[in-house]
From TrEMBL:
Keywords: DNA-binding, Transcription, Transcription regulation. InterPro entries: LysR-type_TF_proteobact-type, LysR_HTH_N, LysR_subst-bd, WH-like_DNA-bd_sf, WH_DNA-bd_sf. Required for the induction the katG gene for catalase. Involved in the response to hydrogen peroxide. This is Probable hydrogen peroxide-inducible genes activator. Belongs to the LysR transcriptional regulatory family.
């Protein structure tokens, strides 16, 4: 293992903030440091790496192609580095204090309540305030310590740690599948059947994958909800075909046969669920403990499948 990194990790934070704001002055203000310090750290980072990250003129600041790639890796490096520091800190003291958490309703009341109960039982000096939200929130703007969310992270002042992947599958009620004029054997057939869509609104394309191939579909949406439990009830009532996760929603129905897979060899892209929190809370023992509890509960759910 390499003993010394060829660059300063803290300089990556500075670089990331400059990239996001396209301004040295704005980055300096947000980081609470002089503009000259920002410039010096960037110059040293470029010298250490031996590449040009930024191009500056009197009117604008642009990022080089290689600089964009370094930025993408920098976000991941900062996340992992702070994860290590949080792990060390959490081993030194018992979590205490209040934690405010926002969990999207699609994750489910059952999962949120199990995580909350397990966390409070395990850490008696902790207090917990969980809010189920129906839209994506920002931990800093909306006053939360932790937010569960999906998709790539574009802000280097936030940390994102993956909690779990929701493996998704196409399904229908047994009665709906039996009533079809012909079995669905090809993804193109999905265009002509009513679709129950999970999402926060608006038309969207769904990518189905099989081996090395893929098929993109814009379904004919009969109903949409931002909660998997609601979508499941629509599907069970025979109102259409939909995409559902197995880990936290459909285990019992699959065993009972009331829900049946459709095109089982084709899979929608998994839904990555991350725990997001401000960079300055990287050392929080409460956050580290809550992350481990959230991971344990989803692993228990998967083991029950």
């Amino acid at each position: 293992m390499e003993q010394n990194l060829p660059f300063d990790i803290d300089a990556l934070l500075v670089f990331g903030k400059v990239v996001e704001n396209r301004s040295l002055s704005k980055a300096a203000t947000l980081l609470g440091m002089p503009k000259s310090t920002v410039s010096r750290k960037l110059a040293r980072l470029e010298a250490d790496l031996g590449i040009k990250l930024l191009r500056k003129n009197t009117r604008q600041l642009t990022v080089t192609d290689l600089g964009e790639k370094v930025y993408a890796h920098a976000v991941n490096i900062l996340t992992e580095a702070n994860g290590v520091r949080a792990l060390v800190e959490s081993s030194r003291q018992e979590p205490r204090g209040e934690l405010r958490v926002a969990i999207p309703v699609f994750v489910g009341i059952d999962y949120a309540s199990r995580v909350g109960a397990a966390f409070l039982a395990r850490y008696p000096n902790s207090r917990l305030d969980i809010r189920l939200v129906d839209s994506m929130v920002d931990p800093i703007r909306d006053g939360f310590d932790v937010v569960f969310g999906t998709g790539p992270l574009q802000d280097s002042t936030l940390i994102a740690r993956k909690v779990f992947d929701l493996e998704l599958f196409l399904c229908a009620s047994a009665e709906f599948a039996a009533a079809l004029q012909e079995p669905i054997t090809d993804p193109a057939q999905l265009r002509s059947v009513p679709f129950i869509d999970f999402g926060f609104g608006g038309p969207r394309r769904i990518t189905l994958r099989r081996d090395s191939g893929h098929y993109e579909l814009t379904p004919s949406v009969r109903a949409r909800a931002n909660n998997f439990q609601v979508c499941k009830q629509y599907i069970l009532q025979g109102l259409g075909i939909g995409v559902m996760p197995t880990q936290i929603i459909c285990t019992d129905e699959l065993r009972a046969g009331t829900l049946v897979p459709v095109l089982p060899h084709w899979r929608p892209d998994a839904l990555d669920v991350h725990m997001i929190y401000p960079f300055e809370l990287s050392f929080s023992t409460l956050i580290s403990a809550f992350y481990e509890t959230a991971r344990e509960i989803i692993l228990e759910n998967i083991a029950r499948i």
